[in-house]
Write a structure and sequence with these properties.
Blueprint (H helix, E strand, L loop, with lengths): L2 E5 L6 H13 L8 E9 L2 E8 L2 H17 L8 E4 L7
Antiparallel strand pairs: 1-3, 1-4, 2-3
């Protein structure tokens, strides 16, 4: 069952997000195995992220690459809200 991960940090600027994406691409993790959807939202000058992953294991494997990048950029994403995905409607 797919899982939705919602990160709503008050300390993740658009500049930090753009640099995170750049470094993930450079590390070969721009489109990680197991991530089905990625959405970045901008609210009150900060980035919030909603991802859909095929499994907790796939998300955890990506975290091994993502977390050092975030740490080096001074980003604390906090704990995500995680929920099973019931439905996705395209269009």
């Amino acid at each position: 069952m797919a899982l939705g991960f919602y990160f709503a940090s008050d300390e993740f600027s658009p500049t930090q997000y753009d640099e995170t994406i750049k470094q993930l691409d450079q590390a070969g993790a721009g489109a990680p195995r197991g991530r089905l959807h990625h959405v970045a939202l901008e609210s009150n000058g900060n980035i919030q992220v909603f991802d859909v992953w095929e499994s907790q294991e796939a998300f955890d494997a990506f975290g091994a690459t993502l977390m050092p990048i975030l740490t080096n950029l001074g980003v604390d994403p906090g704990q995500p809200m995680v929920s099973p995905v019931r439905n996705i409607i395209k269009g």
